[in-house]
Design brief:
By secondary structure, the chain is an alpha/beta fold. It is built from 26 helices and 15 strands. The strands form three sheets. Strands 6, 7, 8, 9, 10, 11, 12 and 13 form an eight-stranded mixed sheet that branches.
Length: 605
């Protein structure tokens, strides 16, 4: 990457701004940030957000852990566990944070990989028994220990504040589950984002995998923005692709959250087990898209030789179930074949055409308006509202970041001088910036769905969109009243986050915040005037005091009610919310005496 590339320099400046803003969210001042090492974890979380938007990661929990483990040290910055697929994701960070980014030697990469795997090895030895129980790091280590029989492969993601010569070719050898090292340095993130696509394209050489092109039938030629090919995919090919790329194959991960549960999946598995020859007849097949294909002609007709940018937009259930049948159930899939429709779409039309292809495809488990993306009409309208509605006094506004990084990019472009940067920040304070994932947290917490919020940003966002997209069976757009209510809910949520930081809980802050906000809504919503909060841009003192006083009670109840279970997992369950909503919290006199009926939860559009 050339140092004088203006686009890369803009990306780098925006990234640094995001890291600084993220660090400041959890520290009182810049000196604290530098002293306590918040910047490394802030860089980690910013990079994880970007990879989540690119469909690379999902349901990953930030958890900084660095300890002396035996003869060496171990370190991870985040982790995630997919029990169904038997995959553990460990994230570690190489962060320098000073001056211009530079090259990272292979020896340093090997060192951080070794340290990360040392954490997993320690977890196998029940190292959590030596840790303080009420902490997220303890939960992680105990979870890894309990899941060691389930874990069949480890995806080790390395986030790099610099450059590696060839990050995709990093390998590791060790005595344990299969490990794949996935390195994301600044160059790779920039290129993935600069491509204009909501994911990093997957390139597949079918000749190399099958020893011959995959036979196909092409649609008649025309002047449309796409071409269609029909093919029959061997089950072994589907297994190999999903094993290598996982949920990256499934459109923006939406289906990876909704896939392969219940009766449909059992039916797929039973067919593979009992009637594999009939699978192609019983199964609806898959619909996929690609940016480019290489077609070769042979004596038997046309064949697909290479595919770039493959995305399964319908049939994720089928893909995941075939993979699970072989990996988990040890079933023979050599006789399994799946019909596939591959639509080749020009890159500039991906985001407009793919949602329609997904929506109208005949699927086993269709997703409503499948592209819960930044281009969804809901988010476009909300951004328009944020640009035109200023807070009372007309000195600032809330900045709705419809697509990740919009705020930082605009700040870099507008703030070309100190005076212009000051004006930009006065009109668009960092504290008044929010994105679609945060929006979903604010609304679902106030709508008394803290267990859904606790399931992670993307899963909570999908649940939020399913409700907002078809509230009461009708598609509706947000209006100015809805927008003001959402901002009031954001102000309440941020007040709760501040209270959690003040109490300095050793872990589970995000869960404590979501449940405290939900309980506040349940107990005091009728006495909370959301319009007044919007007008004053602040939480009334009585409500702020209640949130502060209830927070440690909620935190202790969450930890204790887990009863030895993983607290993070317990907080995701419906039973946890049912238990917590019975918690006896006393309304302060100022709230108890307030008239009821002023602010019933109304987050659904």
């Amino acid at each position: 990457m050339k140092a004088d590339d203006p686009l890369f320099n803009e990306f780098l400046a925006a990234l640094r701004t995001r890291v600084n803003d993220k660090a400041m969210e959890v520290a009182e001042d810049t000196e604290d940030v530098a002293a306590s090492g918040f910047r490394e974890q802030a860089f980690t979380e910013v990079m994880l957000d970007s990879l989540e938007d690119l469909g690379q990661l999902a349901d990953i929990q930030a958890c900084y852990f660095e300890r002396k483990l035996g003869r060496g040290s171990g370190k991870v910055n985040a982790w995630g566990m997919d029990d169904d697929e038997g995959q553990l994701t460990l994230v570690t960070t190489i962060f320098r944070g000073a001056g211009e980014p530079g090259p990272v030697p292979p020896t340093e990469l090997k060192q951080v990989v070794d340290r990360c795997l040392r954490v997993y090895a320690a977890a196998q030895r029940a190292w959590h028994s030596q840790m303080e129980p009420a902490s997220e790091a303890y939960d992680m280590m105990r979870r890894l220990h309990a899941a060691q029989e389930v874990i069949r492969r480890i995806r080790l993601v390395v986030l790099v504040d610099g450059f590696l010569r060839d990050p995709k070719k990093s390998k590791v050898r060790w005595d344990g589950p299969h490990v794949k090292v996935d390195v994301w340095d600044l160059r790779r993130v920039f290129r993935a984002q600069a491509s204009g696509l909501p994911y990093e394209p997957i390139e597949i050489d079918l000749v190399e995998r099958l020893n011959a092109p995959l036979p196909c039938i092409a649609s008649p030629g025309g002047e449309a923005d796409f071409a269609v090919y029909l093919a029959v995919l061997p089950g072994e090919l589907i297994h190999a692709l999903y094993h290598q790329y996982g949920s990256r194959l499934l459109e923006l991960n939406v289906r990876s959250f909704l896939q392969a549960r219940g009766t449909v999946n059992r039916g797929i598995r039973d067919t593979i087990k009992n009637e594999p020859d009939a699978f192609i007849a019983y199964n609806n097949g898959i619909s996929a898209t690609a940016e480019e294909v290489e077609i070769r002609s042979g004596p038997d007709g046309l064949g697909l030789a290479k595919v770039k940018g493959l995305q399964v937009v319908n049939g994720g259930q089928t893909v995941a179930s075939i993979h699970r049948a072989k990996d988990r159930d040890r079933l023979d899939i050599s006789k399994v074949f799946v019909q596939a429709k591959l639509t080749v779409v020009r890159p500039e039309r991906i985001e407009s055409l793919v949602p329609l292809i997904s929506r109208y495809s005949n699927t086993q488990n269709r997703v409503n308006e499948a592209d819960f993306s930044a281009n969804h009409p809901f988010h476009v309208k909300l951004q328009q509202l944020s640009e035109t509605i200023w807070v009372p006094g007309e000195q600032s506004r809330w900045f709705y970041e419809r697509a990740r990084g919009q705020y930082q990019v605009l700040q870099v472009r507008e703030g070309t001088t100190a005076a212009r940067l000051t004006r930009f920040k006065q009109a668009n304070p960092v504290s008044q910036r929010f994105d679609k994932v945060e929006l979903a947290k604010y609304v679902n917490a106030w709508e008394q769905r803290p267990h859904v919020v606790s399931r992670g940003g993307q899963k909570n966002f999908v649940a939020f969109m399913q409700l907002a997209d078809s509230a009461k069976g009708q598609k509706r757009e947000p209006d100015s009243d809805y927008y003001r209510r959402v901002i009031a809910q954001a102000i309440i949520f941020k007040r709760a986050e501040a209270a959690a930081r003040q109490h300095k809980f050793p872990g589970y802050r995000a869960n404590a915040v979501a449940y405290t906000v939900a309980l506040t809504s349940a107990l005091a919503a009728g006495r909370v005037d959301l319009e007044k909060i919007w007008n004053e841009q602040a939480v009334p003192s009585a409500l702020a005091s209640a949130i502060h006083d209830w927070m440690p009670i909620v935190y202790e109840a969450l930890v204790n009610s887990a009863g030895g279970r993983n607290v993070t997992e317990w907080c995701k369950r419906d039973e946890c919310w049912e238990h917590m909503r019975a918690l006896e919290l006393v309304l302060p006199p100022a709230l108890a005496e307030a008239p009821s009926g002023g602010g019933h939860p109304d987050g659904a559009v």
